[in-house]
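Input for the complex:
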Amino acid sequence: MPAQPLDATPEQRAKAGEPPLQHDGQDQKPKQLPKGVVLGPDGKPCRSCTSVASWRAMIKEKSTQPKTVSTTQPPAIATTSLQPPKDCPPDVDELGRSTWTLLHSMTATYPEKPSFTQQSETRQFMSLFGKMYPCWVCADDFRAWMKEGNEPRVSNREEFGRWMCEAHNAVNVKLGKEAFDCNRWQERWRTGWKDGRCDQ
Amino acid sequence: MPAQPLDATPEQRAKAGEPPLQHDGQDQKPKQLPKGVVLGPDGKPCRSCTSVASWRAMIKEKSTQPKTVSTTQPPAIATTSLQPPKDCPPDVDELGRSTWTLLHSMTATYPEKPSFTQQSETRQFMSLFGKMYPCWVCADDFRAWMKEGNEPRVSNREEFGRWMCEAHNAVNVKLGKEAFDCNRWQERWRTGWKDGRCDQ
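Predicted:
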């Protein structure tokens, strides 16, 4: 099964600064940031929107500024094996994994017969989540996806879980990852797999 | 620094069934569940409310039912080292860690000067979160804590981050864990530590 982060595609990451520019405090000349570094609304690099690999590349460039390092050719980055150090702010990938864990678990414990109020509050929660998710480019995309005829389906647990699975798959597809078989979302997030490996 | 899960204390876990009883399908005699297994609103064991250790103890007891195994003396459980298998539903600890990662990150990207609407939506989000968190006993406790004079403080980033840190510490204290120094929440969740170890 693929990892399923709610994170930014390279396109999304590039959104924030096209081209991503940063003012160098010394000479006031705009300086290109390494690939994948997304700026926040404050114009500073957004940690929650950036992978740890890109973040490190940026730090490395900063520390080697006096040398003649090309800033347009960042080092090749193997994003899959890198993890932020323990007890450090999460990068976009760790944030994504954590968030999907919460969101899918919410669908797993959602009632089979939710009240009108529960349905309404769930819609409201997803709408607010779409505004407040810390990676703002990811949040933008999530809101756009919901508007494209993908409003939350919250009439019962199976519907809500399947909708969340589809939301996750929309991100997977953007990231070039394999889509998850949404027929099995309950096995993945609620009951454990039928082969019993989750109980061992 | 301590791990800071938003999870259930033994007392919270016991809340759901005092004593935790389960009907045995074969003889209809109530059967005691292993320590730490919390029931959901549907009367079935709640995976999001239970540690993987207790869950496994429960499965083990189920599979050894015909034998003369004591169900009142569950095995000693080392909860700290156990992790749910990959691609399996998260236990209460994994869910807690994931959720704190999202919540603290939300405070890290919260504006320094939020609009009235942003403040109002943030209060609303936290209120809905308190109703919808998948571990219902944890959610109950979180709502109770907020009502005890701990309404979300959302007037600016520093306030919101500090409030979240205090919310997390309330759980830490219940779990017998060390409280986190909230003066350093920005280093932990936003900027990385001053010694630079988060940039390496």
